[in-house]
Fold this protein.
Amino acid sequence: MKMSNEKETAVLVSVLTGKDENASEALNELEALAKTAGAEVVYSTIQRRERIDPATLIGSGKAMELSKIVRETMAKTVIFNNDISIGQQVRLSSILDAKVIDRTALILDIFAQHAQTKEGKIQVELAQLSYLLPRVRGRGIELSRLGGGIGTRGPGETKLEEDRRRIRVRMKKLQRDLNKMESVRSTQRKKRQKAGIPSACLAGYTNSGKSTLLNKLTGSNVLVENKLFSTLDSKTRHIFLPSGKTIVVSDTVGFITKLPPQLVTAFHSTLEVIREADILLHVVDASPKYEIIEERIDSVKDVLQSLGAGEISSLLFFNKIDISEQQTIEYLKRKYPEGIFISAITGENFGKVVQSINDKLGEHAFLSSTASNVSKSVTRF
C-alpha cells in the first residue's frame, strides 16, 4: 500500500498564567516545534487564565469552543504548549475528538526523528519511556479509584502492571548501554587531558547556528539544517589556534525554554561534555527582537547552571548579524559589551572568533608547554 505524504494537521494552544510571559513568542516557538515535527498548523490560539483548570487545563467553555475549531479545520492533533496530565489528556481527547499531546511529547518526537547515532537513539528512547511511565501508572490509578466490581474486572489492571514492568526493564537496559558508551567517552577525554589538550564546547539555544560555526571553525561538514534540534549527537573536532596550540571543540544539543527534564536526564552523558569543558562558546541568534534574545540567553544560563556548568569561563557570540536589525545589534552591544558579533554563514568577524578563543585560553593556567607542543597529527578524539 502506498504511503501518504500528507502532513498531520494540528491546532496549537498556549495557556499562559504569568503576566510577564511573552504570548506571541510562546506561540511562535510552539509553531516552529510543530513544523519541525512535520505538522501543518491550521489554527493557533492563546488563552490567558489566572490559574490552570485542573480538569481540562483550559476550562469547559474554552474546551467546547476548541472542539468546534477542531471540527471546522478537520485537525487531527491538538498540541498544548503546556504539560498536561493523563487525566487532562483523556478528557480533552474525548471532548475534542482528536489526538492531544503536550509540548514535552512534541519535543520528544522531534528528538526521535533527528537522532542519528546509536547513542542518540538510546537517549531518546530512554527519555520517551521516562515520559511514558507515569502516564501508564496514571491510567492504573484511575482504574483503581473505581474500586473494583462491574466495569473494572478483567485483564486490564494486570496488563498495565505488565506494561510498567516492561518499561522499567527496558529503561534499565538502555541505561546500562549508555553507561558503557559514557565509559568509552570518558577514556577519550582522559587521553586528551593527559596530552594537555584543552577543550571548548558550543552551547546555546536551539537553531542559533552552533553547527554552522563548528563547520566554519574546523572545516568539517557537520549537518546543518534550519530546524530546531537538528543536532542531537555530540560532535568533537579539533582546531589550531594562532598561538600554535590545539584545542578540541564539541557541539551539543541546543537548549530551549523549559527543556523537558526527561531529556536532561537521558542526555546526561552527552551533556557531560559541557560540564567538563575548559571554556564554553555561548552562541546566540541575534536576529529576533532583543526581548526574545535576552529570554533565550537567560534560558541557556539556567540550563548551564542546572548542569553544574554555570561557573565555567565563557565567550558570548552573537551570530546571524547578516540578518539582524541594526537597532537590535546596537542595543545588544550596549547591554553585552563583552559580546562578539559574527555571521557564521558569511564569515563576518570570523577572525575575532578564533582570536577570542586563543586569548581566553591564554588566560588559563591549564595551557602548559605540553599543550603547545601537541603535534598536528592529532585529528580527532
